User: Which sequence fits this backbone?
């Protein structure tokens, strides 16, 4: 498999009702370029899966969507990323409201070493989303219910979040993210540390969340991509090779690299 | 196949002896070094404890003395000033003269010399506290002179006793011991008095108070400054040439000989800013300079140890940098920071050299009341006493060292406990 000659993304990278649109996005770590000219729309209320071999830049791309890359000093982003038509890399944009709008769930469950209640209520508290204690209680309950964790933890809301099982912790993290009522949720391999049962629960949850949120999920599991997403984007060595409806990507991939990857010839 | 497998196995077997020998040799070295360390500690502690233990008892003479209102010239109704000025020393001398009937000036002086001047103050204190004692005959445990104290503790019945006492004195001493009047009791003076030229009246209260005040100043300055510096350098400072230089210099500062900080304190705090010398304030300032690098370095290490996933979680929720630091990083880093601070403070507690430079070696009798009173600190007090020729000061030196070690052990234990207690797992 030679280096890609064809820099054009094949398939349908753009859509009619984009929530987020990336245009010619390049990401650099110092002198090293990790992402090359990626243009991609993420439609409202869709789940888009980002797949590709390790080191292909899918996580880097995901993290540039809510400027989590800002925390890395040497990281630089070119091109533009529009959220509802507004460039999030505009110098006037503050990352705090941006990240409250575009939430993130990480690869390893990372609950705060605080109680379950405090984990969920932290976001609403710092953003002033609850006007009273009762309000806050409601947000906590609603978020946990949406994350499918309420029945399991309602009797121990004040015990530490770190005491839960891995799968529960990840759902706690999802609940924590949706407690802020974001519009987009970015998920960076949310199930890679979980067993199949916990994974199934999270996937089910993603499917439900689609009603209200736009979700971009990075995954190494092609089955997972096939199960949860409507569109799939295939990254290779920092380039976006192909974007198509998920069914199509897994049955009749357009690009030979995509085909090679999904048939397991590398990755 | 079988052959080569066998030969591998045979080779391994052959090398096993050498490997086991290397392992047991290494274990022996380890054990020996630990034993050496323990031995040194035992010798050190054994030496100090055996010498210092006797500092905690003081020899007293139990007698009954008549508080003669005619001799003292005061009554129960006199005002405190008069009560204070009455001649208690004379009363004691009178009593001694009447009771033991020394013949001649020389014997009289010998007799008086065996009782500490502190006995008169004891009497004065008793009267001031309860003037109605005047005119009565009271029991008193008279503090004895350090020579008597040392004789009672160490020389009694040995050939050395004739070196310091005359025959008549020895007769009195043995009489007192035989009658049970001369005996040792817990040395409260050691803990309630400041320094004194008389060993039997010298105590560590002044030094302990000075140490406490000095460390208080050190803590109040170095903890907030150190923690803020650590947070700024670790979380907010841009990573560039300048911060790199600052970092290198902080590490250098941690290794600067402490006496240099003393000189700096003398030149800057005392000469330029005019802070009065020999006070806990200037001592605390100097020790702050010395403790800061320790606190900053340990604080930064503690901040670095906070897992990045926690930061990311908070950032991902839209927490600002400041909120990430104060809501998540700091609570997790605090145990490490406090441990570093306590270790820094323990270092400051034992520091002597820089304090010599800023005059805390002065002979201070009064217990300091505030941070701008002249005072000394425990290690300097130890240094001062270790220089004194009186034997009683030698045992007090060891006694003070025991107290200092006690404080050190207490602080280090607190550091360990705090770390265990606050340590969180994630």
Assistant:
């Amino acid at each position: 498999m030679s280096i890609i000659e064809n820099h054009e993304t094949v398939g349908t990278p753009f859509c009619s009702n984009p929530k987020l649109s990336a245009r010619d996005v390049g990401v650099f770590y110092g002198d090293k370029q990790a992402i090359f000219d990626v243009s991609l729309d993420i439609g409202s209320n869709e789940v888009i899966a980002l797949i590709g071999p390790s080191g292909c830049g899918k996580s880097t791309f995901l993290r540039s969507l809510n400027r989590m890359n800002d925390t890395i000093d040497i990281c630089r982003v070119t091109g533009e990323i529009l959220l509802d038509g507004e460039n999030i890399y505009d110098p006037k944009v503050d990352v705090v409201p941006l990240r409250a709008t575009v939430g993130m769930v990480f690869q390893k469950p990372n609950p705060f070493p605080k109680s379950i209640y405090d984990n969920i209520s932290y976001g609403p508290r710092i953003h002033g989303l609850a006007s009273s204690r009762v309000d806050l209680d409601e947000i906590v309950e609603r978020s946990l219910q949406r994350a499918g964790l309420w029945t399991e933890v309602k009797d121990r809301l004040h015990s530490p979040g770190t005491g839960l099982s891995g799968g529960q912790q990840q759902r706690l993290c999802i609940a924590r993210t949706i407690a802020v009522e974001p519009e987009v949720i970015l998920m960076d391999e949310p199930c890679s540390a979980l067993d199949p049962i916990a994974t199934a629960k999270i996937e089910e949850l993603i499917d439900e969340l689609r009603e209200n949120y736009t979700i971009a999920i990075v995954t190494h599991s092609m089955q997972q991509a096939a199960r949860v997403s409507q569109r799939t984007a295939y990254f290779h060595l920092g380039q976006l090779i192909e974007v198509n409806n998920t069914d199509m990507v897994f049955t009749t991939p357009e690009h030979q690299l995509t085909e090679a990857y999904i048939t397991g010839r590398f990755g | 196949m079988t052959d080569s497998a066998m030969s591998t196995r045979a080779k391994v077997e052959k090398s096993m002896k050498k490997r086991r020998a290397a392992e047991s040799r290494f274990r022996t070295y380890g054990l020996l070094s630990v034993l050496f360390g323990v031995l040194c500690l035992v010798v050190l502690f054994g030496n100090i404890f055996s010498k210092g233990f006797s500092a905690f008892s003081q020899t007293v003479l139990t007698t009954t003395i008549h508080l003669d209102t005619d001799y003292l010239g005061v009554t129960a109704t006199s005002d405190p000033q008069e009560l204070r000025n009455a001649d208690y020393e004379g009363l004691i001398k009178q009593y001694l003269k009447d009771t033991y009937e020394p013949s001649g000036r020389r014997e009289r002086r010998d007799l008086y010399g065996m009782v500490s001047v502190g006995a008169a103050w004891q009497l004065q204190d008793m009267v001031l506290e309860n003037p109605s004692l005047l005119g009565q005959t009271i029991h008193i445990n008279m503090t004895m002179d350090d020579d008597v104290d040392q004789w009672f503790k160490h020389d009694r019945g040995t050939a050395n006793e004739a070196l310091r006492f005359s025959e008549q004195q020895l007769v009195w001493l043995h009489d007192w011991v035989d009658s049970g009047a001369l005996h040792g009791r817990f040395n409260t003076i050691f803990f309630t008095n400041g320094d004194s030229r008389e060993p039997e009246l010298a105590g560590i209260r002044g030094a302990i108070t000075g140490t406490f005040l000095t460390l208080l100043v050190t803590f109040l300055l170095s903890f907030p400054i150190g923690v803020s510096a650590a947070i700024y350098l670790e979380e907010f400072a841009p990573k560039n040439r300048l911060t790199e230089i600052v970092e290198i210099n902080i590490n250098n500062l941690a290794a600067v000989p402490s006496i240099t900080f003393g000189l700096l304190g003398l030149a800057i705090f005392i000469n330029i800013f005019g802070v009065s010398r020999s006070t806990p304030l200037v001592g605390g300032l100097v020790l702050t300079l010395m403790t800061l690098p320790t606190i900053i370095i340990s604080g930064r290490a503690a901040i670095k140890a906070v897992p990045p996933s926690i930061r990311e979680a908070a950032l991902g929720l839209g927490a600002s940098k400041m909120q990430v630091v104060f809501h998540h990083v700091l609570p997790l880093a605090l145990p490490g920071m406090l441990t570093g601070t306590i270790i820094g403070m323990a270092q400051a507690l034992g520091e002597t050299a820089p304090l010599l430079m800023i005059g805390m070696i002065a002979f201070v009798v009064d217990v300091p009341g505030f941070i701008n009173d002249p005072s000394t600190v425990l290690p300097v007090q130890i240094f001062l006493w270790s220089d004194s020729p009186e034997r009683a000061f030698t045992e007090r030196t060891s006694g003070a060292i025991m107290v200092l070690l006690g404080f050190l052990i207490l602080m280090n234990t607190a550091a360990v406990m705090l770390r265990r207690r606050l340590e969180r797992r994630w």
Observations:
- DSSP finds 19 helices and three strands in chain B.
- Residues 2-52 of chain B form the longest helix (51 residues).
- Strands of chain B lie at 57-66, 137-143, 182-186.
